[in-house]
Design goal:
- This protein is of the alpha+beta class.
- The protein has 3 domains: 91 residues; 58 residues, SH3 type barrels, CATH 2.30.30.60; 98 residues, Alpha-Beta Plaits.
- The strands form 3 sheets. The chain has a 5-stranded antiparallel beta sheet, with helices on one face. The chain has a 3-stranded antiparallel beta sheet with strand order 6-8-7. Strands 9-10 form a two-stranded antiparallel ribbon.
- A hairpin with an 8-residue loop joins β3 and β4.
Length: 303
């Protein structure tokens, strides 16, 4: 009789194991099939990425649920053990748990998404993947000047979204305010210099100003924020060496370097064609007095 019971129990364990394996294979097959078909029906890259992530999470959840149902009779005796073990695991893996919580926050809020340009954990770059534990960033800067890729791929724990500020350059307002400074000699035609800067700004970034104004109106309605101007502005200050003109403008967050190049190129050309009415300045030094020079040699003084 005992041998018969043992045989039944053994067969029961084998059957459960087989059911678990079959169930996992079916769930994974369905998950992969759905993921492969999503791109056909969801054209937006961001929504497609989030949908695939959600399908993966749902698949893993169903696997855990399947195992819990099949082995539900054995789970009761392991409750205390799992409780004690879970407390120790939670303490040892607290960074992992926080990273998972960060991943959930990233997926279901607007902190950032794939394709956004961010500054996270001291690393600036474009987000290329948001994993369960880490966010993968294509680094910008480093040893490279300007907003250009360095070629390094950086992986940062998702826990950073709870520990440090996250700077998003492209989330709600995909434009940035930038500025250039132009030194002009004293005695130049300051009115003409201002006109040159305004004309160049409207030629190069005029379209950005109109697009940014529409986006900023949405920001004003969405957040408690003042209605700032998105059109080019020119300010001047006078210092010891020159009159400094500052051109402030709005630009697409990915085109700061190329726009600066266009602005300076056109400004240089217009200043050269101004018939010397406007001239660039450089640092100058005025010598007011030459100190006396004395020479001494073998008891003789020369002045």
């Amino acid at each position: 009789m005992d041998k018969y019971i043992d045989l039944v129990l053994q067969n029961s364990y084998v059957v459960r194991a087989i059911l678990v394996v079959i169930g996992i294979i079916i769930i994974l097959t369905i998950k992969n099939l759905i993921r492969s078909r999503l791109s056909r029906y969801i054209k937006d890259n961001d929504n497609s990425y989030k949908s695939k992530k959600a399908v993966s999470v749902a698949g893993y959840f169903l696997i855990i649920l399947l195992i819990s149902i099949i082995y539900r009779e054995s789970l009761g005796t392991l409750t205390v053990f799992f409780g004690i073990a879970g407390a120790g695991i939670a303490f040892a893996l607290q960074e992992v748990i926080v990273s998972i919580a960060g991943w959930i926050a990233i997926l279901f809020t607007d902190i950032y998404k794939s394709g956004d340009r961010v500054l996270l954990g001291g690393i600036k770059g474009d987000v290329i993947d948001v994993g369960v534990l880490r966010t993968t960033i294509m680094e910008i800067g480093g040893w490279v000047e300007g907003d250009l890729y360095s070629g390094r791929i950086v992986r940062i724990g998702n826990s950073f979204v709870f520990k440090e500020p996250v700077y998003n350059y492209s989330s709600d307002f995909p434009f940035l305010w930038d500025e250039i400074k132009v030194p002009i000699q004293y005695g130049s035609n300051y009115t003409l210099a201002r006109e040159i800067l305004y004309d160049v700004a409207h030629e190069v970034v005029g379209d950005y100003s109109n697009e940014a104004e529409e986006q900023w109106d949405i920001m004003v309605r969405k957040f408690l924020i003042e209605n700032a101007s998105t059109h080019p502005m020119v300010n001047i200050i006078a210092n010891d060496n020159w009159v400094e003109f500052t051109l402030r403008y709005v630009v697409d967050y990915k085109k700061r370097v190329s726009v600066k190049d266009q602005l300076f190129t056109k400004i240089l050309k217009k200043v050269e064609n101004s018939s010397d009415q406007v001239e660039f300045a450089s640092a100058t030094f005025e010598v007011t007095k030459v100190p006396p020079v004395e020479f001494k040699k073998e008891g003789y003084d020369y002045k």
